[in-house]
Amino acid sequence: MNYLILMALLFLSCKKENSKHWTEVNIKANNYLTGEPITDVACGVFYSKAGFFLNVETIALNEGFTENGQYSFGFKAKKNGFYQAEAAFDIEKYYVINFSNYLYLDYGEVNNFQFDLVPNGKLRLVYKNINCFDENDEFFLYYFKNLDVPNYMFDSNPDIDINYGCAIDVTTSYSNAPAGTYEYKWYVTRNNVTTEYIDTIVLSANEMNEINIQY
């Protein structure tokens, strides 16, 4: 008897999931640098239907967090209205490589979404002239960029970011920055002689670090 009940439940479940309106959402969130799953991403599936005078009623069908880097939800879609999946990341904790906040779903299909995040650390810039020649000393930071994170680069403007003189002693505030290996390049001009430099620094997740240039 119990066997027959189990078979009936399995049959009903398969029939529902194979219907043309059955829709699934699978969201994965991984650490871009290590491939490890991220478990604290808030996710949800919502239904919206336009009402009178274009008023929109939005209903939460399911909300939760990624577990072991995944959030999954299945439901039977109605014929009208719009369905969307949403994921919310803490931008203080993560730099987002791949992300779209509102993801409209295809009905009757499995909707797979992959988000790649990099945990943030905090980075600041410190530079100081400790070997003054004269007030014509010149310092310019070309750039600092994360070699592990695509397109993450600070690029200085040579028209406004050149520093002159001996009394240069600058410390910026800490800012969120994705973990990884940073490369930075600068030049110093003294007595009409220009020397270029390049170096690297590693910023770990949740670490406070600084690019320290004493020239």
What is the name of the CATH topology of the largest domain?
A: Immunoglobulin-like
Total tally of structural domains: 2
Radius of gyration: 27 Å
User: How many β strands by DSSP?
Assistant: 16
Quick one: CATH superfamily of the largest domain?
Answer: Carboxypeptidase-like, regulatory domain
How far apart are the first and last residues' alpha carbons, in Å? 84 Å
- What characterizes the major β-sheet? 7 strands, mixed
* The CATH class of the largest domain: Mainly Beta
Number of helices: 1
- What is the helix content? under 10%
Assigned CATH architecture of the largest domain: Sandwich
Q: Helix and strand succession?
A: HEEEEEEEEEEEEEEEE
Shape: elongated
Percent in strands: over 45%
Category by helix and strand content? mainly beta
Contiguous runs where pLDDT drops below 50 for at least 5 residues = 1-16
Task: Determine the mean pLDDT.
Answer: 87
Descriptive terms for the model:
215 residues, Immunoglobulin-like, 2 domains, five-stranded antiparallel beta sheet, 1 helix, 56% strand, disordered N terminus
